[in-house]
Amino acid sequence: MNKYQSIENYLVKFLQDEVKKAGFSKVVLGISGGIDSAVVAILAHKAFKDNLLGIMLPSSTSSRASLEHATELCQKFGIKTEKIPVGPLVDTYFHDKKDASKLRIGNFSARMRMSVLYDISARENALVLGTGNKSEILLGYGTIFGDLACAINPIGELYKTEIFEFAAHLGVPHSILTKAPSADLWENQSDEDEFGFSYAQIDQVLYAHMEEGKNKEALLAAGFERALVEMTLERIANNRFKGKLPTIADLTAIK
């Protein structure tokens, strides 16, 4: 049995066990047309069959290809879906905020998507599945209470480069496997353009730092480009708060 078959078997069982332990039998998932949600959708379908509901949540700035790719995936694997555009929700809020940046609008769109997902989860008595991979989580490349929100995340320990390999193993459509990674927060947005480096480059640094314990000096000594190392480590440090629960004031000291 190869590595990714073992991971598949483990994660399907993980999803079944965790959902059952939480007292649920159904799950919902936002399907974006990207590779991460495609991997989670396939795993969830293997685990829950018709007890999975995939939700497509296009915004006004979403790429048309995203919806096409999400549809292609769901048709190939027989995944039940609903399409609920969030564009009108976003446009209503920003109609009089002409100075709003692309980042503000993109983050708001991500939060509207998650608001809809959680409402659907209440309607269906289902749990929301997450789609963040380890690279994105470490780099803080996600929106708090947006795409980072979920009840269970099956792929949070897989680096982005592993996700590509795992996706190929699972039979993700070629159109999704070969397109540039994007959060699809605005037109022509690209993860790697924002980073200035490819995931293949970043994941090498992340692995050396997280799995092998190499600090900045050791990473530079190993031959990694300074700009790559500094960008990666700064993102890890600056976005660590995104992975923590809210800090609650400890009042024991004054009692």
Commentary on this structure:
The protein has 255 residues and is an alpha/beta fold. It has a single domain, classed as HUPs (Rossmann fold). 53% of the residues lie in helices and 6% in strands. It has 12 helices and 4 strands; from the N terminus they run H-E-H-E-H-E-H-H-E-H-H-H-H-H-H-H. The protein has a 4-stranded parallel β-sheet, sandwiched between helices. Helix 2 (35-48) packs across helix 7. The model has no long low-confidence stretch (mean pLDDT 93).
What's a concise summary of this model?
With 255 residues, this protein is of the alpha/beta class. It is 53% helix and 6% strand.
Categorize the overall geometry. globular
Q: State the total count of DSSP E strands.
A: 4
Quickly name the level 1 CATH class. Answer: Alpha Beta
Gyration radius over CA: 19 Å
Please report the number of helical segments: 12
Identify the CATH architecture: 3-Layer(aba) Sandwich
Structural class designation: alpha/beta
Termini separation comes to 58 Å
Binned, the helix content reads: 40-55%
What letter string, H or E per element, gives the SSE order?
HEHEHEHHEHHHHHHH
> What is the total domain count?
1
User: Which band does the percent of strand residues land in?
Assistant: 5-15%
Q: What average pLDDT do the residues reach?
A: 93
Name of the CATH homologous superfamily = HUPs
* Low-pLDDT stretches: none
Q: What's the CATH topology name? A: Rossmann fold
**What about the largest sheet?**
4 strands, parallel
Strand arrangement in the largest pleated sheet = 3-2-1-4
